[in-house]
Amino acid sequence: MQSLTVFLNERRVGLLWQEGNGLAFRYDADYLESSSPLPLSRHLPFPFGELGKTFSDRETRAFFENLLPEGEVRAQLARALGISRGNTFALLSAIGGDCAGAVSVMPQDQSPLADGGRRPISDEELAERLDHLPDHPFLADEEGVRLSLAGAQNKLPVCFDGRGFSLPIGRVPSTHILKIPIPNLADTVVNEAFCMTLARRLGLQAPAAEVVALAGRRYFLVERYDRYSDAAGIQRRLHQEDFCQALGIPPDQKYENEGGPGLKACFALVREWSSEPLPDAAALLDWTLFNFLIGNADAHGKNIAFLYRPEGVRLAPFYDLISTAVYERVNNKFAMRFGGEKDPRYLLPIHLERFAGEIGVGLRFAKRRLQTLAAEISRQAVALADEYRRDLSNPVIIRRLLDVIDQRTGKVRLLL
Fold first, then answer.
1. Are residue 153 and residue 80 in the same domain, yes or no?
2. Could you give the number of structural domains in the chain?
């Protein structure tokens, strides 16, 4: 039986294997009996009193499938590796060494303690490799590079020290993620960097992001929030799981209209699973309202996550914040219905009332947060736009972003 060893940081957690056409997972007894073990997922709870329990394909797949990239990126990756795109086990075996969070999935003869390092790379070489990501995703067939990130966009985990870039080898953690522009959509790099920075300026927890120029081309660079430096200054990983993993939902059902979670389910999950449900529910409310204000219709269950910190399970900083409403050809209906309404153009006060009721928040509080964020986003967006125009030669997308925010804040006045 072929199997893969699953680790959290350097700790062996259990085994993943193929069982017929499905996947199966089992925690190691030694791990369950060790000090302070963490579950891989809310959906893979510790089998107390049943140490040898094997989790079914449905239970197992929901977590491990969500570690892999999606859509066309997954198809490109499979082609580059000569693997069927439906072969989750083989894909994890090939690239599961540096997933989101602290999980790594390794062939049985390998260990996360294996030698590694950082391979310095020039800006010119890095730009060339980024340009070839669609044909060569995650540098998948390079010796020593085993990188995996979920999502449907081409991206590359890298190490960045503020001066230069390097590629992580072996078990060395990446510190940042580089994204290439999305084809056929204007200036997504500037769009996402602007929205992420704007979120931070409004007080939302979001990692630092910026536009970087490599060999005369622009890319999106974001700091990994699932990393931290220990007392010795060594980079360490934090375990994370997205909301689809926590709810046992496969990635191809991440949208609410495809069976994925809606806002009601997301807020209920925070109240059940977070160690600090009140502040995390308030943060999730701000995330929901911010996405409306910037026109982000792609805010689905895989774009929210939990971090497993030493002090408990908390809502992770927010990521993948981008305005889709600036693009006319993009479907701009909500990924998760707002008070039962899918289209932001048709929102009425009754939808705000229903939304507050569904998520268990007082209507007065929801209105106050929406009013506060709407007033602050207008001021902060104008100031940030001036900086981007000055530093990036006045990209056209900035005007479109301000127009969307102005339109949405105008809508707020009708909702209140």
1. no
2. 3
3-state secondary structure of 377: helix
Q: Which two tokens stand for residue 27?
A: 């925690």
At residue 112, the pLDDT reads 66
Instruction: Identify any residues that bridge with 24 across adjacent strands, giving them in sequence order.
Output: 17
Active-site residue flag, 28: no
Is 308 part of a structural domain of the chain?
A: yes
Q: Are 251 and 284 in contact (CB under 8 A)?
A: no
- Are residue 403 and residue 327 in the same domain, yes or no? yes
Beta-bridge mates of residue 8: 11, 103
Residue 71 lies in domain: 3-107
How far is 265 from 301, CA to CA, in rounded Å?
A: 10
The CATH number covering residue 169 comes to 3.30.200
Asked if 155 and 253 sit in the same domain, the reply is no
Q: Which pLDDT does position 141 carry in this prediction?
A: 40
Segments of the chain with pLDDT less than 50: 136-152
pLDDT for position 284: 98
Pair 387, 260 in one domain = yes
Q: Does the residue 236 lie in any domain?
A: no
Q: Would 27 be classed as within a structural domain?
A: yes
Q: What is the Cα–Cα distance from 319 to 308, expressed in whole angstroms? A: 17
Which pLDDT score, from 0 to 100, does residue 150 have?
45
Q: What is the pTM of this model?
A: 0.91
Q: Considering 52, 87, 107, which residue would you say is the last residue of a domain?
A: 107
For 357-366, which contacts have Cβ atoms below 8 Å and span 24 or more sequence positions? 358/263, 358/264, 358/267, 359/263, 359/264, 359/267, 359/281, 359/285, 360/267, 360/268, 360/271, 360/281, 361/267, 361/281, 361/285, 366/285
Residue 265 within any structural domain of the chain: yes
pLDDT in tens, 258-287: 999 999 999 999 999 999 999 999 999 999
CA dist 226 and 55 (Å) reads 26
- Note whether 295 and 327 are same-domain residues: yes
Query: Of 298, 386, 391, 403, which residue is the catalytic one?
Result: 298
pLDDT tens per residue across span 381-399: 999 999 999 999 999 999 9
Specify which residues 44 forms β-bridges with: 41
Task: Provide the CATH number for the domain around residue 307.
Answer: 1.10.1070.20
Token pair for 10: 């350097």
Extract the tokens encoding 28. 């190691």
**Angstrom distance (rounded) from CA 230 to CA 218:** 32
